[in-house]
Specification:
The chain is α/β, with parallel strands linked by helices. The protein is built from eleven helices and 13 strands. Helix 2 links the parallel strand 2 and strand 3.
């Protein structure tokens, strides 16, 4: 297949691109190198992928409809994995308009260009944040998700709704995947595990929001990629699936585990709860297991150990190049 991956130089996108190239697909990576984090980090993510003759990098924005049309036509795209988005719950509160412009209008642009060019197969990256402070656990795809508590979450729910419209009106095959707190090598530097590791290394206190009881269903990057590949293989109609580990760990336990794995006594800076943060995330993955063969493998301690190996290698490279 000729697959367009939007956000292809990012954390999840770059891992997916590696897997698609390994499976002999032609992959077009579209990325605008948003300054949310450094361009050099994203280029490092895809350095090896770009050595493959099957990979093409295009720098551009999903809000540029002319560019999207050109990419789809020129590269004979027949499948799209849409990962590009303004990321982050907390930053979305400060930049609501920009988040809606990129995440909603950008998604609409992509769907319109697909329609115009006869491309009807799409995997859309949604988020566990659409569940808000859902009272029922674990979170199921049948739960009502009408009460998001951050602009980011609202944009992801809006994206799902747009996808449903295009599936209904134009017979698109669209699978929306709700990712649950993805971590692993190449993780964005603003995300908790990466940020905490950096602070531990610098002997600085970790910001600890609330009493430590907030809990997350952390999902290792390779498990997310396996879920996306299965969704591509089983595309058909309009579907929504949770991709998580179906296990939770509290903030307090996460910090304790990081301290153990780094052999460090961690210092904590206690702070009030943050606006937009949910109390917990916890995925019911029975539907994804039954219908597309999703099968997460990596437990938290193994995943954190793999992340720390990558972090230390990456840090050593950075020091040696200075």
């Amino acid at each position: 297949m000729h697959i367009l991956v939007t956000g292809g130089a990012g954390f999840i996108g770059s891992h997916l691109v590696d897997a698609l190239l390994k499976a002999d697909h032609k992959v077009i990576l579209l990325d605008n190198f948003d300054d949310f984090y450094s361009r050099s980090t994203k280029l490092d993510n895809i350095r090896e992928a770009l050595l493959s003759p099957g990979a093409t990098l295009i720098e551009g924005d999903i809000r540029d409809r002319d560019l999207l049309n050109k990419i789809i036509k020129d590269h004979h795209i027949n499948f799209v994995v849409h990962l590009a988005a303004k990321a982050g719950v907390r930053p979305s509160i400060e930049s609501i308009g920009e988040y809606y412009d990129v995440n909603v209008n950008g998604t609409l642009n992509l769907l319109e260009c697909m329609k115009q060019n006869g491309v009807k197969d799409l995997v859309f990256a949604s988020s566990s944040s659409v569940y808000g402070n859902n009272k029922r656990v674990p979170f199921s795809e049948t739960d009502v998700v009408d009460t998001p508590i951050s602009p980011y979450a609202a944009t992801k729910k809006s994206g799902e709704l747009l996808c449903h419209v295009y599936s209904h009106l134009y017979n698109f095959n669209i699978t929306c995947l709700r990712f649950f707190t993805v971590y692993g090598p190449r993780q964005r530097p603003d995300l908790a595990i990466h940020k905490f590791t950096r602070l531990i290394e610098e002997n600085k206190p970790i910001p600890f929001f609330g009493d430590g009881s907030t809990a997350r269903d952390y999902t290792f990057a390779s498990d997310i990629v396996q879920g996306i590949l299965q969704a591509i293989k089983h595309i058909g109609g309009y579907r929504i699936y949770n991709l998580g580990e179906s296990k939770t760990i509290t903030l307090a336990k996460l910090v304790e585990l990081l301290g153990k794995l780094t052999n460090t006594e961690v210092t904590i800076n206690r702070l009030p709860n943050q606006d937009g943060d949910v109390q917990q995330t916890f995925a019911d993955i029975s539907k994804a297991k039954a219908e597309i063969g999703y099968d997460p493998k990596i437990d938290m301690e193994t995943g954190l150990s793999e992340f720390l190996k990558w972090y230390n290698r990456n840090n050593a490279k950075s020091i040696s190049s200075n």
